[in-house]
Amino acid sequence: MIKLPKEVNKVLKTLEGAGAEVYVAGECVRDSLLGGNPYGWDVVTSAEPDKLRELFPEGRVISEKYGILRLEYIEEIYDKDGEFAGEEGVIIDVAPYRNGGTIETELERRAFTIDAIADSPSRISDPYEGREDIRKKLVRTIGDPDALFREQPLKMMQAIRYAAQFGFDLHKPVFDAICSNYRKLEEADVNGLREEFTLTVSGPYGGKGLSMIMDTGIIGVILGEDVLKHLTRREKSDLTILCQNIDRSQQVEDRRLGLFYTCIDKKRAMPSIEKLGFEGDTYQHLVDAVHDMAKLYFTAQKPELKKFIYKRGWDRYNYLANLEKAQRIVFDYSSETKIKSKMYMLEEIRMYREPIFENELAIDGNDLMESGICKSPEDAAKMLSMLVEEMHVHPKKNTRRDLLELAKKYKRFKFLTWTRGIHWLH
């Protein structure tokens, strides 16, 4: 029997007191047996939906179809200075047995044995020996894995994600069934595929999961069969090294994904990134990773570094800088000197307050218009852009007097605008 939070215990005792059979079941039991501290708890019971609402009037119905009630016991945490520091507590979802079933019929709907364990104050229900599979560190299906994966292809990725999450091995029939059915993932929901892949590579045992993705053939679904077919010897070698060493890097999702896609030539990597439908910041980070890592690596002078940051912003630059450090760790690149050099340049930029962006200039658009140099906000914005590029090379000129003087020259002489930011050699 597992140790239950007091809030979960109270819910179980309330239901037992009302004469209902009740268990905690599924992932919360599995994670507890693995030494975790689950945030979400699933409770299944013989009580009917009306009875649940009567016993827990504070609950919120999250599924009318299945009569699931959600109970939230969350407290906000504040530090000694009164600042918000996070939340603690548990969320409990209480569900009646489906179709008037039993705990056994509830558990047989689960795909994997390690998810088909239920616990109550009086007994444990473990009909598929999930606890034994946890002890053996084994991912095994309930019933025929071949039939499961044909019907629910994403369960193949879930099996591998469990291996990456817990360091488990795949039961041989599970591995064989994935090898036979992996192409069915092309028919699966791309959002689910992307999420499972991301969780796999960013898991504590991401290298193990990534190796399974390659060994089972799923890599052809992730990259695209045409990309896989044309991988170079160097790309294959990098992917192999990544499998071996990715766990040395921090479990940051976008960074782990960046490590993966930078193993592939950018012309082939981009269609693969598009294939999985990455969006938002993650998409931008991966585009930057495959296009700009080499540029960052060879950025050796301070004006170049400022221009690199200016074009991308701090968030995108920091992502690439951290990815560069991760690549050094994973692939044993001899880039430590270059990384330290950039850190030193950044320290100088901060120390001497050298401008990188327009808002760090000693003047703004209003100054340019009030002085008569620019006639509109649009003209002023263009001028500030030209001025900041010049300041990347000559930061000591970042004074109101020098900037206004330079802006007047740009206005008068077109040649100066074409050659701004160039550091002429003598």
Defining traits:
23 helices; alpha+beta; 11% strand; 426 residues; seven-stranded mixed beta sheet
Largest sheet: 7 strands, mixed
Helix content: 55-70%
Q: Which percent range describes the beta-strand content?
A: 5-15%
Overall shape: it is: globular
The low-confidence runs, each spanning 5 or more residues with pLDDT under 50, are none
- For this structure, the quaternary state is single chain
Cα distance spanning the termini: 79 Å
Lateral strand order in the biggest sheet: 3-4-5-2-1-6-7
Radius of gyration: 29 Å
Structural class: alpha+beta
Number of helices: 23
Description of the structure:
With 426 residues, this protein is α+β, with helices and mostly antiparallel strands. 56% of the residues lie in helices and 11% in strands. The chain has helices at residues 6-17, 27-33, 49-55, 103-108, 130-136, 145-151, 154-166, 172-181, 190-201, 206-216, 219-223, 225-229, 233-245, 253-261, 266-275, 280-297, 302-312, 314-331, 336-351, 365-370, 377-393, 400-412, 414-418; strands at residues 22-25, 40-45, 60-63, 68-78, 84-96, 118-119, 124-125, 138-139, 169-170. The chain has a seven-stranded mixed sheet. A hairpin with a 4-residue loop joins strand 3 and strand 4. Helix 6 (145-151) runs parallel beside helix 8 and helix 14 (253-261) packs across helix 16 (280-297). It is globular, with a radius of gyration of 29 Å. The mean pLDDT is 94.
